[in-house]
Design a protein that fits this description.
- It is built from 6 helices and 2 strands.
- It is mainly α.
- The chain folds into 2 domains: 1-30; 40-147, no CATH class.
- It has a two-stranded antiparallel ribbon.
- Helix 1 packs parallel to helix 3 (68-94), helix 1 runs antiparallel to helix 5 and helix 2 packs antiparallel against helix 3.
- It is elongated, with a radius of gyration of 26 Å.
């Protein structure tokens, strides 16, 4: 049994108005969402950037692979990790070239810091619920996210 907010009279369940004062009874509050449903989209999108493993899991597992937001961040994470790997591979090869190798020593910390800042921005933007796109990689990720 519910009670009227204005006069305190007991009201039968399902009644829209109070019989004693004719006051409107507010609708019952919606039950709280259960955490059993899984991660929210922004948390899953954020977690996709922590190595490639969560990104692959989110692309394969339901209900995460149904969300365009999560698919976008998972694809962008995979493509960013692939580009990062290729960049480091190129730098590792260039370091063995006699004169050019010494010059790359100065680029290693700059490249590492730039990659870390980009990764941090991606994680924070995903946590805020934004679909922040990197140039080129973001367009490819968006195309893949829309393909399903």
């Amino acid at each position: 049994m519910a009670f009227c907010n204005q006069c305190g009279t007991q009201i039968p369940d399902g009644a829209a108005t109070c019989a004693a004062c004719a006051g409107r009874v507010p609708a019952a509050p919606a039950p709280p969402l259960s955490n059993a449903a899984g991660l929210t989209d922004n948390v899953a999108g954020m977690l996709a950037y922590f190595t490639f493993i969560p990104a692959v899991i989110f692309l394969v597992m339901e209900p995460y692979n149904k969300s365009r937001f999560i698919r976008f961040h998972a694809w962008q994470s995979l493509l960013f990790n692939a580009a990062w790997f290729v960049l480091w591979l190129v730098l590792r090869i260039v370091v063995h070239i006699p004169l050019l190798g010494w010059l790359t020593i100065f680029f290693w910390p700059v490249v590492w810091l730039a990659g870390f800042i980009i990764w941090l921005v991606l994680v924070l933007k995903a946590n805020q619920g934004q679909m922040y796109k990197l140039p080129t990689i973001g367009d490819m990720a968006e195309k893949q996210a829309n393909a399903v």
